[in-house]
Design brief:
Its main location: cytoplasm. This is Protein GrpE. It comes from Gordonia malaquae NBRC 108250. With 180 residues, the chain is an alpha+beta fold. The chain has a domain of 59 residues: Nucleotide Exchange Factor Grpe, Chain A, domain 2 (Roll), CATH 2.30.22. Helix content is 54%, strand content 17%. The protein contains 2 helices and 6 strands, in the order H-H-E-E-E-E-E-E. The strands form 2 sheets. Strands 1-4-5 form a 3-stranded antiparallel β-sheet. Strands 2-6-3 form a 3-stranded mixed β-sheet, with no helix packed on it. A hairpin with a 2-residue loop joins strand 4 and strand 5. The longest helix is centred in the first third of the chain and has 83 residues. The model has no long low-confidence stretch (mean pLDDT 84).
Length: 180
Amino acid sequence: MTSPDDVTPDDVTPEADETVAEAVVEEAPAEEVAADQAAADPQVAELTEALQRERAQFANFKRRSAEEALQAVARGKQILVEKLLPVLDDLDRAREHGDLADGSPLKALADKLGDVLTSEKLAKFGEPGDVFDPELHEAIQNDGSGDQPVLGLVYRAGYRLGDKVIRTAMVTVTDPPAAE
């Protein structure tokens, strides 16, 4: 066998050079891959976290947009109903004076308008004898002692759209009728 000292550069074959070169090439990428992966792991975590934040922000945006759209529709309904309240008051006055008799074209129109507004959850409140509630009723005169106030005359009906009071009822307050 020959010692390494005895080998001259001429004795080295090209095949041996290729084998040694392949071994060096294989070791270098493994080390580089490990270094690249070590550097990439925090970057991947950072990008994953950024993606999760963006997804959460987008989900919040979609939810907020849907809520804002519903609020805009509700506000539009409220504005329309507020503009129709004088018309409803006029129809109530016509009904009180007998102008909305059966068979009257105005009665048919009033009934249709009432049905449409009821389907949109508009509710009228403030009937004589109802318990007085200062959040729902605007008292313009108090004719009672104040122990258990009820509504006397109703000058203007109150309206509620869903759960929201659109207009308070304008009423007089009195004592309840005596029980017999």
